[in-house]
């Protein structure tokens, strides 16, 4: 395999800094630099594909080993160790590891990033902060590619954290708005919370395996069962944070304050999929710990239902898509938890395509209409036919209507869950009751997904127009990515046929479920989807221009709209106590610590003031003092 | 002559001098009181010189001469300082000359 794989993460990172430093001077703006970098990366990543596809199970590693002084590895280190005391430290691997999974995901990341950057040229035309915008997008791409291609857990962690900071910077792109700043901080802090657990998970696994190289860590035979369970449970924290799974899902809807292309790239297609990717990359470890997989499955069940319900009543188009992303990510984690390795990754690829498409099409609508609220849209299909058609393709894929991509992968996940529920042994060792729960929640979510998707399309594009202001279809820069993305969103489902996926993404663990379209269950879900879609359309037709979600009771709607009060619960349970603690610490610092220090100073001043009462400038007083002193000395000397 | 007479006179002189230094307000009078104290000491020196019959060196008388010379010099310097103070502040009241006091501006 080609040793130039290191170029894949390095090129966009390099061009990110070029864009940041020279962005304003380049002819054509900073986008030229980052697009150049991304094109180079895409070409290299596609160049990695053929050989990776030939031997997808073989991981080709090109890495430099860094060995600290005093450790046992390396001749040089041994020579130093003779006279230098060991300082401890880690043996780190810096380089790339390429197999079928990482090559495929690298291409996916590159393509989505490329399209998003092209789209951004149109979407952010005239923005004041274009250099930093394109630089962060490009740096983000580099970080995601580093995560995908990392050969060492710490290398992966570096990419993981750089993604986090880029997400923070890009969510806060409109930093004049207070909401965007707060959303950025929230996104950063909530994912950070998970990342702390993630880091300790890395420590646990790496120390257990005596190496942080992913190839060593995934060799489960060398690890004790307790280490695997503890390590993977800790890693789940980071997975839940990045992939917005319960209980850390609350940041993603608020992150929609960022520019829409960013939402498409980071908060739909790539970064949020990183959590799923990590579980897949370390699948031997995760599969060896049924406890972790049960926890993951239960979190996924809660997440998919909660977020699908929340998506049902949002009025903000982007928040619908955000909650939908959370819900679809839960499908993936649930699929991995019940042993559906290929179905979950299949869904990851499909989701990246159709959700990026949906976000970009939604961005095209927002750009034209100037509002996020669906209650102020409606009837747009006549004005924006291209956007409508591409959005519809994405929506059909999301709802799971064959032959669009999402249908096959979602069904494959449900198949895996059904197999576990009906008694087949899951490769991850979870009990059949987990399969039952996942299957039931999955079916329910299929219905909910169809409901909110139909409502979203109907509220945005169908129905009466609110005002007749002239709207133009988006420019070429924004339209072209939509068309390009619509192709995989519609057609990626073919990967599920002819056994393509099993050969490209061989499972590292024996006994996982593959992707084999079974028409019987597919018809069941299709019937559920059809009924839901028709029901919503009938409601919309009966009450033109009104929100179908208005049929729900108002208190229920309010609760759903706020994500079932999880945010409020966190506010009451965590934020307010922490702030109260902070305030009491402040008071302690001000009153006790500062009081002591200032009090010492004040006491010294007071004592000095008393002492210098004698220093009043009256020479005769001084002379009296001298006399008294002389007399006292005379008495003391003379009397005894 | 008994030693006690000059000693009593010297003590009285010294006491008057101390009183003058500590209690008088006028700088010139304070200087004069210092002279009184010096002269009380001179009296003591001469009296003890006579009492010890120090005929070889007459060290008491020599000391007294030294003191007189130094007192003259000191008085010259002292009076010129007093004069200079009076020129600057048009007062020789020692209570008003307290520029070297160290008090907080706040507590003053």
Give a verbal description of the structure.
Helices cover 70% and strands 2% of the residues of chain A. With 640 residues, chain A is mostly helical. Chain A has a two-stranded antiparallel ribbon with strand order 1-2. In chain A, α14 (290-313) packs antiparallel against α15 (317-337). The longest helix of chain A has 46 residues, at 566-611. Chain B is mainly α. Chain B has three helices and no strands. Chain B is elongated. The mean pLDDT of chain B is 88. At the A-B interface, α25 of A face α1 of B.
Roughly what fraction of the amino acids of chain A lie in strands? Answer: under 5%
**Fraction in helix of chain B:** over 70%
Helix/strand class of chain A: mainly alpha
- Outline the low-pLDDT stretches of chain B: none
What's the total helix number of chain A? 25
* Beta-strand residue fraction of chain B: under 5%
Jot down its keywords:
heterodimer; A: 640 residues; mainly alpha; two-stranded antiparallel ribbon; 25 helices; 2 strands; 70% helix; globular; B: 108 residues; 3 helices; 0% strand; elongated
Task: State the gist of this model.
The complex is a heterodimer of chains A (about 650) and B (about 110). By secondary structure, chain A is an all-alpha fold.
SSE topology:
The complex is a heterodimer of chains A (about 650) and B (about 110).
Chain A: H1 7-22, H2 30-54, E1 60-66, H3 75-81, E2 92-98, H4 100-123, H5 130-149, H6 153-171, H7 178-209, H8 214-217, H9 225-242, H10 251-254, H11 260-269, H12 271-281, H13 283-287, H14 290-313, H15 317-337, H16 341-369, H17 385-399, H18 405-421, H19 432-461, H20 476-491, H21 500-504, H22 519-542, H23 554-561, H24 566-611, H25 619-638
Antiparallel strand pairs in A: 1-2
Chain B: H1 4-23, H2 27-52, H3 59-89
